[in-house]
Design brief:
alpha+beta; five-stranded mixed beta sheet; 19 strands
Length: about 425
């Protein structure tokens, strides 16, 4: 009888110890915060090692994703381009949770020729606010009459990470994506930006929200369409979503944070809620933030310009990137400072209101299809927006449908063969009779 009694005492002591330890489930009966999900890199991304100069720099190919890391300073990569397409190179810098960042910190991406001259429109730059969130900058070689960098040959990509002297000097993950936009076919092409476009403030829907959980980055962004959607955010967290916009369409977008569980009577974060919109090639279209005091906050972005090829010639930074049909990405961030006056472990309700204005227009006369470059809107993209899938889930669903069609076809063929065999046996039996 002594051993069972001893075991019971040990078990009770262990339970008491676990209840007393900080960070355990029973500690003071309060939930404990879990780490904010890290940026999810692209599946199958190729590892590369950028160089401090152009010598020996690795080759990047269109249609591919790459992963590297970068400390404050420069990294070089190499491209071989034709003279018939526009190419975009995006660099997504991924600071770790808790990293120290400031407004002087950021990343630049620029495409240049072998004469060390930057191509028109470069560099692309992205900077931080107060929070270490994923940011994307884009360099490009754009086809444009009487401009530089129009010939075929070798080009270089220069990625520069800037950081304050007292900032984090460690190497951070860097994701590179190279996308190719084919040139237009024969005939005249637009050479000027549209002079007038409907720019009224969006009227956003007020229907009951449907739940959609956002992703951690561009690669696992959750698909959305027009409507009202609900999610949750924690201090310092960024959720990513994606919406397909076809030629001629505009996007209206708003986000709202509801009340949090406050731990202090007073408190406020200057950039408590930030909403950013990115193009299909990961260039920033627009971004807006507002303060949040734990009670209520909302942000509404101006209605985008209609998606049009000629937008690329606009000097307006919010119009130029809206040049391609495809997936547009939405990043919603709750400022980390909110955790100083709210319960960090308790997510705050987030509501997204979206409206896609206008029907799909006629696409420009490209010499080649856009899908290979990650552009355009097809039937599968519309299905993904309706079903709310990520790119990975949509690809798996498409593969499953393909397998089912193959199985169904094989089953139909096997059934037909069986009927023919049975019919042959019956006919043979009748002849013998």
């Amino acid at each position: 009888m002594r051993r069972p009694a001893l075991a019971a005492v040990v078990a009770l002591a262990a339970l008491g110890l676990s209840a007393a330890l900080p960070g355990t489930a029973g500690a003071a009966g309060t939930p404990q915060p879990q780490p904010v999900p890290a940026y999810r890199g692209a599946e199958g991304a190729k590892a590369v090692d950028g160089k401090p100069s152009t010598a020996g720099s690795p080759l990047l190919e269109a249609g591919s994703l790459y992963k590297d890391s970068i400390a404050p300073g420069e990294r070089y990569y190499r491209l071989y381009l034709d003279d018939r397409s526009t190419v975009y190179v995006s660099g997504v810098l991924q600071p770790p949770a808790g990293a120290k960042v400031g407004y002087s910190d950021g990343v630049e991406v620029q495409v240049m020729n072998t004469e060390n001259r930057y191509c028109p429109g470069n560099p692309g730059r992205a900077g931080f606010g107060y929070d270490p969130v994923p940011i994307s900058a884009v360099g490009s070689r754009m086809l444009q009459e009487d401009a530089g960098c129009q010939g075929a040959g070798t080009y270089y990509v220069k990625v520069t990470r800037t950081a304050a002297k007292d900032g984090d000097q460690a190497a951070w993950p860097l994701e590179l994506r190279v996308q190719r936009e084919p040139g237009l076919g024969t005939g005249s092409a637009p050479t000027a930006a549209p002079s007038v476009w409907p720019s009224a403030s969006p009227t956003l829907p007020g229907t009951d929200p449907k739940s959609r959980t956002g992703g951690s980055g561009f690669n696992d962004a959750r698909a959305l369409g027009a409507g009202v959607w609900s999610d949750e955010l924690r201090p310092g967290q960024t959720r990513f979503y994606r919406v397909p916009l076809d030629w001629g369409q505009q996007l209206g977008l708003g986000a709202e944070l509801s009340a949090a569980k406050r731990t202090k009577e007073y408190g406020s974060a200057a950039d408590g809620l930030t909403v950013s919109l990115y193009s299909p090639y990961r260039a920033l279209v627009d971004s807006k933030d507002t303060s949040y005091d734990g009670k209520q906050a909302s942000v509404t972005l101006p209605r985008t310009a209609p998606v049009a090829y000629e937008n690329r010639f606009s000097d307006d930074r919010e119009v130029g990137p809206v040049r391609m049909a495809g997936w547009y990405y939405i990043a919603v961030t709750m400022g980390g400072k909110v955790g100083e006056f709210t319960e960090d472990a308790v997510p705050v309700p987030l509501t997204l209101r979206m409206d896609v204005i206008g029907g799909a227009g006629k696409a420009p006369a490209y010499a080649e299809g856009l899908a290979a470059g990650g552009f355009g809107v097809g039937a599968e993209d519309r299905t993904a927006a309706k079903e709310g899938t990520t790119a990975v889930e949509a690809a798996q669903a498409s593969a499953d449908r393909s397998v089912m069609r193959t199985v169904a076809g094989a089953g139909f063929g096997a059934g037909t063969l069986l009927l023919l065999v049975l019919g042959g046996w019956i006919l043979l039996a009748r002849r013998r009779a």
